[in-house]
Amino acid sequence: MRMDAGDRTEGIALERKFCVLGDRPVIGEGLRISGYASLFGRQDRGGDRVAEGAFAKGLAALERSGRRVKMLWQHDPAQPIGVWDMVREDATGLLVQGRLLPEVARAREAAALLSAGAIEGLSIGYRTTRAERDVDGVRVLREIDLWEVSLVTFPMQIEARIAAAGADTVKTGRSAPERGDELARAFETARRRLAAINGA
Known about the structure:
The protein is α+β, with helices and mostly antiparallel strands. It has three helices and twelve strands, in the order βββββαβββαββββα. The two termini are 33 Å apart.
C-alpha cells in the first residue's frame, strides 16, 4: 500500500494508499459495493501502518460540517462516479459502502471493469495530521483527514476485500496471496524487460 504525494485538492497535497477489492460483483441495477478501504495494523509496502481509530476525528469533523467522503475514479476530482453511503471504522479497518451511479458514464464503465475483474482496488486520498515512528522505525499514522476513496487499477494491500451488496458475485477462484504473487511476477517480468532494453 504505497503512499503517493498525489493530487492537490483545494491547494492541499493528498497522500494515497491502496487496498485490493476481492470478489467481483455482477452488475445489477444501482450496483452497491462495499469493502475495506484501509486495514488497521498492517504494514504496507510503503512502510507505513494505520493505527486503529486514525480516521475517527476526521470523519466526525466531516459529519459535523455536513460534507461527505467522495467516490472518485482513479483519484480524479473531475470524475466522481458514485456516492459512499457509509464510511466508518470497525475493529478491522475503514469500512465503506456505496453505490455507483448508472446515470454517470464513467460509473457504468467502472461497473463493467469491476464485473470483468479488470480492476479490483480501492485507494484512499487523505492528509496525515498526526504520525509517529515506532521502535522499528515504521511510520504509524495516528490521525488521518480522509478526503476521498477511489476505485483504482493497481491495488497494494492485498488483504482487503470488496463485496457486492444486493447483487450476485462471481468468484475469482484465486486467493489473495495468489493474486499478490501474480502481481509480483508481472512487475518482475516488466523489470527484466526494461533492464534488457537499457542494457542493449
